[in-house]
Write a structure and sequence with these properties.
By secondary structure, this protein is an alpha+beta fold. The protein contains two helices and two strands; from the N terminus they run E-H-E-H. A two-stranded parallel sheet has the order 1-2. It starts with a strand and ends with a helix.
Length: 46
Amino acid sequence: MTIRIGTRASKLALAQAKWVIDRITARYTDIKVDLIKITTNGDRII
């Protein structure tokens, strides 16, 4: 099974998402996780 996790592309958001992915894959070894980086209009302006 594959799950997709979406997160903003900031360093903090990526670190938090990777923390979650590590916990999921450690507990459920048969699950594959795709990390989807999301950029909003607000992110583009800053």
